[in-house]
Amino acid sequence: MTYMFGVPQFSKVNIKDNSEFPHYGLFYYYEGRILQDVNRMKLKGAPVIFVPGNAGSYKQVRSLASVALRKGMDNDRGIHMDYFTVNFEEQLSALYGGYLENQKLFLRIAILAVRTLYKEANNVDKSIILVGHSMGGKVAQAVIQDPAIAKYINTIIFISSPIDKPVVNFDPKINEFYSNTDGYFHNKRTTHLPNRQTNVCLNYQDKIPHQGNESKILDNILMISMGGGNRDLLVRDGLTTSQYNDIHAMTSSIPKVWLSCDHLSAVWCLQLVLVINRFIFGISVIDENKNVFFSPDKYYRTQTAINYFVKPLNKPKSNEVYFPKLNSGSSWQEDSKIAFRKVFKNGLRADYNHLLPTAKYKELKKIYIEIDSYEDFENDWVFGCTAHRTEASGLYCQKGTSLSHFVQTIPSHDNYRYMVLLDIHRMLKYYPDWTHILVRLKPTNKPTSLKIDAYSVEDRKYKIKAPKFSLPKLKTLVNETVMGTIHTGVLIEGLDEPFPTVQFDIEPVECGDDEFGVTAKICIPWARGFNRHIHLTHDTKVKTIYVNVPFSTPSGYNTTQNPVTLDLFLNPSCRYKISYQFSIAGTFSKIVQEFYHWLPAHLTAVLFLVLRNQIVSFQNSEDALFVKPYAGFFQSKSLYIVTGCRLLKKLLLNLKFLPISPDTSNYSFYVSIIIHGTAIVLSIVSVFSIWTILTFHGNILHKIALKLTRLSTASSEILMKVVTTLPLSFGVLFISISVGTCSGIGLTLATIFYFLVISNAYKDYLENWAWDKAKGIFKRIRQKIRSTSKNKGTVALSQREIIAVDGNPGQELIPNNENGDTNELDDSNEVANEEKCSYFEGLENFAFHITMLMLLGIMSALNFGLSVAWIKAKYQGHIHEHLPDPFIIPTIITLTCLSVLLQLGAPRKSSGYHYVAIILYLCVCGCILFCQEIVYRLSYLITFVYVCVALQEVCYNFYTLILDRRR
């Protein structure tokens, strides 16, 4: 964690003409107990503006700014930074898009205000670096749509920002903001998309533009994006890159960071903060007046960014290096072993020179050289040379050519490992005179080691096909590695979607006296900047490496020719067993992370189909059988609809006349089935939870709802009576609330009150049901008593009949009950019918209304961001702030339809429901085709369903009125 060197202080910048956004602010960061006024300071540093993101504070700049402040005090060049930060009052810009446009407009004002500070102080023209975290990065990107601002921006650094797509597309304002930015950038900046030939594992810089395109006015701005990786659960790694970025890197692959960062720690992680500031200082220049500027040279900035965020750029050195004579005390040693390891536990007192004859390794093709715990690694330590042998001094090289540009750094648990992998065949093609590879170690007091592993590529490259969805079955890749093996690689074919996960188990068979240690490097050939480094030690509980990709391959990409590569850097003193299998846990966790935002669309689709089944079941029910509470939820028909939608999407994508296009994402069928199956289970759990609450805890939740709405019991009873007497007042009340506040507040209160109406009706039903049951039991007991008495009377009567018949053979007797009631035999049927009718009349509407309640609840949840925005604005005293309400019209229509349904006592036995059933089928398809990625469209679909159901009831009501008048 980054700690402050002094007391963090923030000096507010005075901004003229800021009447539109008085609650926003711009601050200058400094440290110390002495208060400073930035408006009176003479600033000479280079300006950097930090833009916070969703619920982000302007104080999050303190880690970056504090390190820069200390670095500016310590460097000899006199370069220092001036860090500014923007206060957006921790607004939830990822949930409500209405904030984004206001934030962009204020950031424009802030940039001009910062420039004014420098203009007044130094009369110089300085460019600015923008550092945006989370949604702040998107705002920083959008502000350069203004040409007057774009010319002042030097570089934009995105930290865990969803750049090209939002995390979840909650409302039209978010969608509009992203669409406008993408449309502008498409014409004004060069795009960099992977294609069929892309393989960044072979050449990272192949797709990096080094010079700005003169026809693209935004190309001179350097854009660098960073993602947190697996630990960032808020912004998944595939969203942190952009087709318009120049450089992308994951924190797990950035040199000297090497670790995954969660979403918040990215702004205070010391390793990452240091790298960002080193880059900013690296592109800074200073003039004779001590004014600091950022370099305008795009190529220079790009190379510097690659050096800090991708890998150190050690350029080939053409000049030859001359080595000291042997009498300097240096030692020379030649060794041609395939596997070699030499440890210097006490360090080195003199130069150590190790010669590797190229002729001996020519057949093996590859030679791997590694040193660790070596403090002088930045200097040249590996060379190619032509050796000479003398009688006096033996074999040695008088001069050599540096190969340091091949050196790579990989992380270790307590230090770094510096390695070089040389292709002997290729090297001798260009330098046929070289006889040896020289490893030259300089004196050091620290323990160090030299490791060499020469091998044939065919012996160390293992090709596997990524297993698809299947039960875990462990397959052995390498039963036991050869002692001395340091480097081996696995090529994984068929890993072309972001959710299948392959699990590699690395088990040490024997390690001797050394500790277990493995470093893995994962490279995705079509995903630039998504390399990952994983380090396993003896302290690691699970010796497992999970391999997956951030996003799908480009169209037509061949993963057989360009497979995902897994490089394993092993401890040569250990022997390992390497095995792999399909990881169910890793795959499902990846599906949750990548596709959880599909769940609202599939849940709504399930409820539409449930509603359709309930309406049909109710209309087709005979002899007054009630519709069961769970009717329609236990079904698998919607899974077939998911299959049909995949085929229908291919047809719709070719139709040009559609006003909106379906989701273009094309993933395996498994994803849709898993998400939809989850939605079915969730709907079943939800409906049973609601019914359980209504049955056992209705009164408790009734009281909770009253507290939430701040209604007294008397007020609640009055509202209930009003709604019962005149249900249209339901719509009038909550439409008025929606117009007076916002649609989110109105929908939320309507959902709560709708639940109260259902709860109150169900409570009355339970009371009537209990009374009917008690009355039925009492009638049965009374009937049984009468039946017993009648039987006794019948026996006595039979004896009299025998006597009477004997006396009067022609006389016919008719038995009567005591009360003379001849209909006692039908009493039991009447009781049963009465109970059945009462049960039916009490329960028949509840299943329908529970489904409608759940749909209204989903619509309320989609407006959660708007509701929070309105409440926050009210309590912060910014109620005058204009907050666009994109859902006010759908809300008014939905609440109107709901009040009409309550007024008509829906559902009722009617005709025309077949058309509604067909429309609901189409709406199910609409959810899956159009609403998986663009979630806010669900609100319009739910409104459309409410309209269709209400319209069918209204039409049938008019139809019956016309028939009654004709009669």
TrEMBL record:
The keyword Ribonucleoprotein does not apply. It is an enzyme of class 3 (hydrolase). Residues 43-281 form the GPI inositol-deacylase PGAP1-like alpha/beta domain. It is found in: Endoplasmic reticulum membrane. Keywords: Endoplasmic reticulum, Hydrolase, Membrane, Protein transport, Transmembrane, Transmembrane helix, Transport. The chain crosses the membrane at residues 667-694, 730-757, 846-866, 887-906, 912-931, 938-959. It is a multi-pass membrane protein. InterPro entries: AB_hydrolase_fold (IPR029058), PGAP1-ab_dom-like (IPR012908), PGAP1/BST1 (IPR039529). Its EC number is 3.1.-.-. Its main location: endoplasmic reticulum. PANTHER family: GPI INOSITOL-DEACYLASE (PTHR15495:SF7), NEGATIVE REGULATOR OF VESICLE FORMATION-RELATED (PTHR15495). Involved in inositol deacylation of GPI-anchored proteins which plays important roles in the quality control and ER-associated degradation of GPI-anchored proteins. Belongs to the GPI inositol-deacylase family. This is GPI inositol-deacylase. The gene is LOC101890378.
